[in-house]
Each structure stands twice: as C-alpha cells, then as structure tokens.
Amino acid sequence: MSKFSKVIIYPKDIALITGKSYRSSWQLLKNIRTHYNKEKHQVVTVQEFCEYIGINEEVVCKLIS
Question: Which residues contact 53 (CB under 8 A, 6 or more apart)?
C-alpha cells in the first residue's frame, strides 16, 4: 500500500468493486455501519469493509486508488 492510500470507503467505491448500484452500495455501507455499532456520523474504513465482505484489502486498495 502506498503512503497516501484511501482510508474511508464511499458508496461510489463499493459500487465500483461489487458492481452493484449506488443505492445498493449505500445500503451495504449502512449495514456495515450497523454491524460495527457505528453511529450515523461515523465513517466506514476500507479495512472494515474488507473484513465484512471477505475481500483482500490490497485488491480493494488497487481498485479504488
């Protein structure tokens, strides 16, 4: 991983990775936030997304960078 890789994942990134629509990606992000007991204002990290989905973090970082 590079020194300045992204830390936060957005619905647009999830749509790119999964091939789902923006709306479905937004819902998935909401489910991840609930799974990790986060509040509405808290963000989801790439690491949390990868753990939840079961995808290697390096692959995701290459796709969204």
Answer: 18
d(CA 52, CA 38): 14
Segments making up each domain of the chain, as ranges = 11-64
Show Cβ contacts of residue 24 under 8 Å, excluding neighbours closer than 6 positions: 15, 18
Inter-residue contact 33 to 25 (CB < 8 Å): no
> By percentage, how much of the chain surpasses pLDDT 90?
74
Q: Can you tell me the distance from the alpha carbon of 60 to that of 54, in angstroms, rounded to the nearest whole number?
A: 11
Q: Are 1 and 64 in contact (CB under 8 A)?
A: no
- Tokens standing for 58? 């390096």
